[in-house]
Design a protein that fits this description.
The chain has about 200 residues and is mainly β. Helix content is about 5%, strand content about 25%. The chain contains 2 helices and 5 strands, in the order αβββββα. A 5-stranded antiparallel beta sheet has the order 4-3-2-1-5, with no helix packed on it. The longest helix is centred in the N-terminal third of the chain and has 7 residues. The chain is elongated, with a radius of gyration of 41 Å. It starts with a helix and ends in a 60-residue tail after the last helix. The model has no long low-confidence stretch (mean pLDDT about 75).
């Protein structure tokens, strides 16, 4: 840690008074800081002075409770200690170790890891989704026969729809390329005249 950081770290947990660039004063518990001098205050209160309308000499101080505040270091003019950290019974020092998971004792009793809580165990038979009979494969003979000229697996034409033959299928004049394909008759070796 650099010298400035150690000097700032000595004031952690102190009650401090911070003056910011617009002349407001913030009083709170100094919780944290960083290299930009951004400061975190807990239980913070703001004090500002307001001039009375009647008299020019008289100023009134207005207090507002803010709570947890993060102050940008750029706005801080001064930081002064007001009171040392509270001296109460210290928590016993806990030795570092591997740790141990323990039930907190709130809410529902813990269930064994092998079963999920009710409602989270996954889909229930008969609720949502298609019925089991709908998910079974159809018998081989149940498919309608493909219309003539259609490859197997193509669906049958709906009733009332005019007969259309897919491009490149029987029914096209010989030598005609399917629509959208480049012509094969000109400039291609092995095609056209004089071969």
């Amino acid at each position: 840690m650099s010298g400035r950081n150690t000097r700032m770290a000595q004031w952690l947990d102190y009650r401090v008074r911070v003056t910011i660039s617009d002349a407001r004063m913030l009083v709170g518990t100094f919780m944290a800081f960083d290299k930009y001098m951004n400061v975190v205050l807990a239980d913070c209160e703001e004090f500002r002075k307001i001039k009375s309308k009647g008299r020019k000499d008289e100023e009134k101080e207005v207090k507002r409770t803010l709570g947890f505040v993060v102050l940008r270091g750029e706005t801080i003019v001064s930081l002064m200690a007001e009171a040392p950290p509270p001296t109460g019974p210290k928590k016993p020092d806990i030795q570092p170790g591997p740790g141990r998971g323990q039930v907190a004792g709130r809410g529902m009793p813990a269930a064994p890891l092998s079963s999920a809580p009710a409602g989270l165990s996954g889909p229930v038979r008969g609720v949502g989704g298609p019925a089991a009979i709908q998910m079974q494969p159809k018998a081989g003979g149940a498919l309608p026969a493909a219309p003539p000229g259609m490859p197997p697996g193509f669906p049958a034409r709906p009733p009332g729809m005019p007969g259309m033959v897919p491009p490149g299928m029987p029914g096209m004049p010989p030598g005609m390329p399917p629509p959208g394909m480049p012509g094969m008759g000109r400039g291609m070796p092995g095609m056209g005249r004089g071969v």
